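User: Here's a chain of 227 residues. Predict its fold as tokens.
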Amino acid sequence: MTPRNIIIAVDGYSSCGKSTLAKQLAQHLDYMYIDTGAMYRAVTLYFTNHGVNIEDLHEVQSALEHIHIAFRNMEGQNTTFLNGANVESEIRSLAISGVVSEVAAIPEVRKKMVAIQRDLAAAHSVVMDGRDIGTVVFPNADVKLFLTADVEVRAQRRFEELLAKNEANITLEDVMANLKHRDLVDTTRADSPLVMAEDAMLLDNTHLTISGQFKLALKYINGRIAH
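Assistant: Prediction complete.
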């Protein structure tokens, strides 16, 4: 009998370290890591580069037919490819961050991304991070984690991350405003809003180190599934 695939859902607010934790868990457990945020960012990049009016349903649907997203391991790093091109750096810019929540709120976009996410999980045990993984994409996930942190802490972390990537003309105030805007859009959108699943473990990492968070999450996971 072949063991069934395991699904670990990591949801939470922007810049809470979801991808950092998900990558750690995937590597430790030897599962596939799926960065759903990168998928929505890649769609946003395509829409931006091609002047797609996100309020025009026909334009959105037409553009989605020309979008192919894939992940590859590049020198040990999970890397996002859009139509064959490495876009990992481009999709992390503050410019893309400024509009990704609006793009992710479009039902047609979510429908296509969720279909891709479910196809990936059908073939592998996965750790998947996002906004609605444990509530909409995989409501029956084996393990659900929900990350949060004070917005001031999240803004500082994101600001330092952007500085390390040589993002020019970025201020802490810009980052704070962006996060507050994304929080509002993510939690109030009509389709699949950001909300903590009733059976998720809450991880507030405001005062946690990366390693401390990993240890807490892994202990919880080990109590939920057998390896």
